[in-house]
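Students often ask what a holo structure prediction actually looks like on paper. The answer is less mysterious than it sounds. You provide the chain, you provide the ligand, and the output is a string of discrete structure tokens encoding the 3D arrangement of the protein together with zinc ion.
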Amino acid sequence: MKDILSAPFVVEMGKTTANMYRLGWDERNGGNISYLLHEEEVAAYLDIHKVLREIPTGFNALPLAGRYFIVTGTGKYFKNVEGDPATNLGVIRIKEDGATAQLLWGFQGGGKFTSEFPAHMMSHMARLAADPENRVVMHTHPTHLLAMTYVHDLDESKMTHTLWEMCTECIVVFPDGVGVLPWMLCGTNAIGEATAEKMKDFRVVVWAQHGVYGAGKTLDETFGLIETVEKAAQIYMLTAHLPRLNTIKDEDMLKLVELFGIKKYRRDFLHLDQ
Ligand code: 13P
Ligand code: ZN
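The corresponding structure tokens follow.
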């Protein structure tokens, strides 16, 4: 059996969390990631019949029974993941009952999965129904996007439109726009359910005055998605207090979706008839 510390999914989780930490998005224990793994991937590094611990989840995720995830631990710092993966990460499998996580590796020293496990698992269920190739759910606290939720209307059409105006390729990277939730108590099943409901339509869900959730096929793609939204929010926050002399027009956005061959986009978020 190969050394799990050399597994691409462990190495990539370390690199991604370190990268996010360095961007200032994940102060202290802020942020969490879950990454769906195929059984063959896990079996190359671990005895999948050896369960170290069983941890009740407090919600039902029956459609994910038998699925494997590598997940960040609760209270763990993104800055420390790369240096000590076995303490800060865990590989779990959802048991047949849909309500128990079976720990196969990691969370050394008695740790457990992120407190946002409900939002992660419920979002995986919603995204897998929309896209069977979805594998990653990422939560983080990007500075400018967070700032934007204090000063911008939280209406998702208005927020998406503003973000699309901020960088030329925004509408290409997130043509489905951003879903927005008002401030809610984090770490609860309720915020998990609300996030998953939004994830039916959006790969990005903004948590007002808290952060953002992103979903995608790979860690790179999901990171790139959030990075693009955050860049747009940064441009917004750098310019919101200044007179705006120029912008990307809605007809320009139409040209972009045409050029990039994007069939599915939130045309209803554009102001074409005004
Ligand atoms: P955890 O440390 O439990 O992952 O929580 C961090 C966080 O960002 C809560 O929203
Ligand atoms: Zn958070």
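The chain has eleven helices and nine strands.
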